Amino acid sequence: MTIAGLPELEREVISCRRCPRLVAWREEVARVKRASYAGEEYWGRPLPGFGDPGARVLVLGLAPAAHGGNRTGRIFTGDRSGDWLFGSMYRTGFASQPTSVARDDGLTLRGAWVTAAVRCAPPANRPLPSERDNCLPYAVRELSLLQTVSVIVTLGSFAWDAALRVTRALGEPVLRPRPKFGHGVESEVGRFTLLGCFHPSQQNTFTGKLTEPMIDAVFERAAQLANSGQVPT
Fold this sequence. Notes:
Blueprint: H1 6-14, H2 20-32, E1 50-51, E2 57-61, H3 69-72, H4 80-91, E3 112-116, H5 129-145, E4 151-155, H6 157-169, E5 186-189, E6 192-197, H7 202-205, H8 212-227
Parallel strand pairs: 2-3, 2-4, 4-6
Antiparallel strand pairs: 1-3, 5-6
Helix pairs in contact: 4-8, 5-6
């Protein structure tokens, strides 16, 4: 299945150079490399979203990891956060396999699309507000093209905030008071349901702030909301 407009958007994202700080950082990381990946060719460019064009669930992350997606060329691919994310998506029926190590590793998504609020790896994993704002139009266009999406799983508070901005840009209601992020929190925003999930970063998974049952519960709920209780097949 191909949706008109997605290939063009992907090309635009990959060629983007709107944020000088992010361009310099992602390219420096790709040039210097981590010692354990010294023999690999890094992607070193912005990352488009990927998944099932007929998705009912969109997963919104923060940004690519410097030696994960910035290396492999696919969001959440080649890092421990991705191991947690795709492990859960596999257990809940959204992914064809529990690991993601390279763009050509055979992973496919069913009923889900994975993307990020910021498409370049930021220093210290902290994008600036201006960088977020430069990137948000890509998510707005992406979500407008993925017309079957009804559930947005936000990985962390930054993604939750970005999702509220994206839905507002799409003409959905501005909620007052503004919904606050929390793990397992749900918020109806027009035609979308936002689901909060702690980000599967090592900071959260190593400390037990996020466990496998916790992240699985979020994706099970996403499946229920998007498919009337039926996990996608």
